Amino acid sequence: MNQKIIFLDIDGTLTEPGNNEAPESAVRAIAQARKEGHYVFLCTGRNYDMLLPLLKYGFDGIIGSSGGYVECQEKVIFDCPMTKAQSQSVMEVLKTNGIFRTVECMDGSYTDQGLKEFFENYADQGGNSELLRWREQVEEALHILPMEEYKGQPVYKVVIAGTSMEAMVRAQEALREDFDFCIQERDRSGIINGEVVNKLFDKGRAVERVCHYLNIPLSDSIAIGDSMNDLEMLQTAGTGICMQNGSEKLKKIADDICPSVSEDGIYTAFLKYELIHESV
Predict the structure, then answer these.
(1) What mean pLDDT do residues 69-80 have?
(2) DSSP letters of 161-179?
(3) Residue 26: is its pLDDT beyond 70?
(4) Phi, then psi, of 255 in degrees rounded to 5
(5) Which letter does DSSP use for residue 11 in this model?
(6) CA distance readout (Å), 128 to 16, 79, 120, 125, 132
(7) pLDDT for the residue 131
(8) For the whole model, what pTM was predicted?
């Protein structure tokens, strides 16, 4: 069998969203695949600081910040934060349109004052206390700090939240020359989540960079994700797999669907595509 390279999203794929612990079966699958000679990479929207707790499981490299930062075998092969002018423009446009911002830097993430109250209000209105618990867990587990602690460090990506699609569209139009907006489906509480990402990179182009660097054909790459910010990754890889717990839109685009995070999805997919074997 040809040597394969596997790209794994984190939240909703390798772990439950906002969690830093992978199922034992996924950890075992990663170790076995590498033992059998395949490469395994993280490919995530998380910044470097957020993904650090996952490195204990052992990977051949990482793609962070939706492709803005790429390490291959401990060597940085791509590093592309926003320019200062770009980050200032993004911050101002989002603020003007009443969109909550969480800026992601190499060393941490910083979120607007009032975002927690915003989630509290809409969790109550939508009867979705699970939403608030998830947000509190994310803030604690992923080292998200108040915006007043942000000191102008280079920004790789901005996560956005609001309730007005019109405001999102206005901001998208104002920033369209340099940035793409990845808008997630509106949840049952009415909140719209998304990301503002530099047009110079995405997860798909990061997959191409790594495959080129390691001299592995794209046809021998496998990507596994769960949400629409994994779209380019799944479209670029030779085989794109969506988790059962993932976006319905992404499932329609993916080549295959594997079980959910809680049902040993990674391990099942690795077995199906003969990246590992039961006897190993």
Answers:
(1) 97
(2) EES-HHHHHHHHHHHTTTE
(3) yes
(4) -75, -25
(5) B
(6) 18, 38, 9, 8, 7
(7) 46
(8) 0.88
